[in-house]
Amino acid sequence: MKSTERSHIVHVIDELRIGGAQTNLLVLLREMKNDPSIKVSVVCLFGPGELDRDLKELGINLKVFDFRREINRRNLLSPMNQLRKYFVVTRTTHVVCHLTWSRFVGLPAAFFAGVQARFGFEHGDVYLSGLLFKLGNFISQFFAVRIFVCSQFLAEWFAKERWVFRKKIQVIYLGVNPAEFRPMDSDPTFRRELGISDSTFLFCGVGTLGRGVNKRFDILIHAVSELIKKEKDVGLLICGDGDQRSDLQKLINELGVQGRIKLLGTRRDVARVMGNCQAFCHSAPFEPFGLVIVEAMLSGLPVIVPDKGGPSEITNRNLYGMTYKTLDVRSLTTAMKDILENKKRRSDLISIGMSHAKEEFVVSRYLRDLRRALRLDLRLLLVVEKATGGTGPSRNVVGTLNALGKRNDVQIELLCESFDSSEPFTRAKNIRIHAGFKPKNSWGFLKNIFMISKFMRKSDVVYVPCGFIVASYVSLVNLVFRKKVVFGPNVSKIPFRKADSPGVFEVGFMCDRWLEASNRRRDHVREHLPEIYKDRVIGLLHAIDLDKFSPRHRVEDFFAKFGARTGTVKVLHVGRDNEPIKGVHVLMNAIRTLNSSLRDKVDFLIVGNMSGETRKIENEFDNVKFLGFLSGRDLSTVYASSDLFVLASSWENCPFSVIESIASGVPVVGFKTGGIPEIVDANTGVLVSGIEGSYHGEDAAKNLAEALHRLITNDNLRNQMKISARKMAEIKFSEDRLGHEITEIFSSLLSREVAACVE
């Protein structure tokens, strides 16, 4: 059984036991397994562990080796060779090594297996500190693209203590799921179970009580004891277990504070414990990051942390929490006393601490940064002359950019001459705009070539949505880089080609995929291509901003300011009369026919730049109003305030005006031609015959008038169609739909078959 995926990521880890590295791995696996473009596997080096079951429940492929004997004998070649074979057989594209031995063995194995994307994690392993381990870190770094650490503190420590070049190290802050840790109401039963008074101010601490990673809870216990001696009504809850627990309990008993300080052991309900405390304290002298501090901040607790290590980075010294001199009981006692007595300071820290944690240390941001670092996101270069609205091709460019700007799996470099700064894509975090590309400026030829070359080199796919000149530039540069290239629906054919569709040269040699905005146009283009190139042509409907074009923007009597009457049915047309195919002359004849019987019941509103010849109808009828060119909010209000939309074109591919009407909840009347039947069905409007080839037939105006008459005089049918129109738009023309479909097209060019069953 095989599946199509773009990447196969193998995570290599020493052991599958509960720990920080393993928790980080599980967070990654939960998110990555939902990405259809990624296949995820895990390799464990030192036999099965307690987290095997978790991986199986997630449906993750797990390969367990047991290299303990080889590692004890310092025989690394045999594990390396076995891992190399595994990477080759499973067609691994990315290797991520999560602990020290994983880096020592996994990174060289990936290198010799030909895996290009090789990464490591360092979590602050202070035990493996001998000369051989420093040499191991020094050597293994040459097999890694990057080694990730969770704080600037750890980066500096790792570079200094483990002989790793600083440029090889990349800081990516860890993240917490804010849904799991949030402020809670105090639970009275919780305190009663522990025998603690409701009035007692509770501090809490969380961490292991082991001797190896010593969190120094003794410092915290002494500080709380000092506050109790000063007759402060305080208590302390410590979540965690380990072989220091008996010693800490002995200390508590000796200080005589066993009624106020409780060792709760390992807890599955840490969020509940935090929700019943008033402040959080951390006392570890060496802490690379301190994920539990972020959990406390998200739980609405002020935090008190040492002034060294990762915790002080989280709180930015005293900005988002309080710091004290590391391992200094007096300094910690002072900070705790300040939190206890200064209600305003405590309230401020809760507010700004929670906001800071949600902005900087949530899991979604962590995964976004990590995806970029692992090069999992599709890297797209989009080249266009103008990224502004107005014409149909320009609106398609803007709509595509807005759709892609909502994606978290695509990174986009946009080359253009100009752009509309009011559009949402200009604020998207995954789009970087580079103005200055001027394809029609012959003097800027070399500059244009340089700009495309600079960004094409680092891209996976290049997309040209419109413009043959732009497409020619991209094709020329691609002779060197050989990237995957997609041309959009408004890239025209070679100018001197007599046929009305692209041929073998454009579809077969200039690009890898050619997009058309309707299936009708797609089929027409395919008819003129050899069989081997037909599948390169794909139909992809446009999309629009459904918030911008919505029935919510309807304003009753909006058209009164244009001279329209109250109580009439408002029929809207948006377009131009620059060529006969647009059918404005047919529409004018249909209006004349309708006005012979419905003049008192209907007003016609015409939006767009019309010629003087067309505007002469205003002299004939007072119910025809020309509104001129409109855009932005004015245009969306005009759509939503209308009752019907009419389009008289004899050919349209995928007209935005029809989509905007449907999205605004306005039924459409038009002809059965081009891609319009793919937008309008019997529930959202009326399409009539009257087109012969690509031209209007003799009955075109008559048929159009009859369809308009039917809907103008039937309020119930028109209202039903309004509801159906909006529902259809939400399904077929949303930017989310376009973003998903076009990303799938790009990804399909990079995908390859990866074995679904791993040995």
Mind explaining what this structure looks like?
The chain has 759 residues and is of the alpha/beta class. The chain has four domains: 2-171, Rossmann fold; 188-360, Rossmann fold; 377-539, Glycogen Phosphorylase B (Rossmann fold), CATH 3.40.50; 551-733, Glycogen Phosphorylase B (Rossmann fold). The chain is built from 29 helices and 32 strands. A seven-stranded parallel sheet has the order 4-3-2-5-6-7-8, sandwiched between helices. Strand 21, helix 20 (504-510) and strand 22 (513-516) form a beta-alpha-beta unit. The two termini are 13 Å apart. Residues 752-759 have low confidence and may be disordered.
Features:
759 residues; alpha/beta; Rossmann fold; 7-stranded parallel β-sheet; 29 helices; globular
Q: Strand fraction band?
A: 15-25%
Q: How would you name the CATH homologous superfamily of the largest domain?
A: Glycogen Phosphorylase B
Q: Total domains, how many? A: 4
Distance between the termini: 13 Å
| CATH 2nd-level architecture of the largest domain | 3-Layer(aba) Sandwich
Give a short overview:
By secondary structure, the protein is α/β, with parallel strands linked by helices. Mean pLDDT is 92; it is low at 752-759.
Sequence-ordered SSE layout with sheet pairings:
Blueprint: E1 2-5, E2 7-13, H1 20-32, E3 38-44, H2 52-58, E4 61-64, H3 68-72, H4 77-89, E5 94-97, H5 100-112, E6 117-121, H6 131-140, E7 146-149, H7 152-161, E8 169-171, H8 188-194, E9 201-206, H9 217-229, E10 234-239, H10 245-255, E11 261-265, H11 270-275, E12 279-281, H12 291-298, E13 303-306, H13 310-314, E14 322-324, H14 329-341, H15 343-360, H16 363-374, E15 378-383, E16 386-387, H17 392-404, E17 410-416, E18 418-419, E19 431-435, H18 445-456, E20 461-466, H19 468-481, E21 484-490, H20 504-510, E22 513-516, H21 519-527, H22 531-534, E23 537-539, E24 569-574, H23 584-598, E25 602-607, H24 612-615, E26 624-628, H25 632-640, E27 644-646, H26 656-663, E28 668-671, E29 685-688, E30 691-692, E31 695-696, H27 700-712, H28 715-732, H29 735-750, E32 752-755
Parallel strand pairs: 2-3, 2-5, 3-4, 5-6, 6-7, 7-8, 9-10, 9-12, 10-11, 12-13, 13-14, 15-17, 15-20, 16-18, 17-19, 20-21, 21-22, 22-23, 24-25, 24-27, 25-26, 27-28, 28-29
Antiparallel strand pairs: 1-32, 30-31
Helix pairs in contact: 4-5, 5-6, 9-10, 9-14, 12-15, 17-29, 18-19, 23-27, 26-28
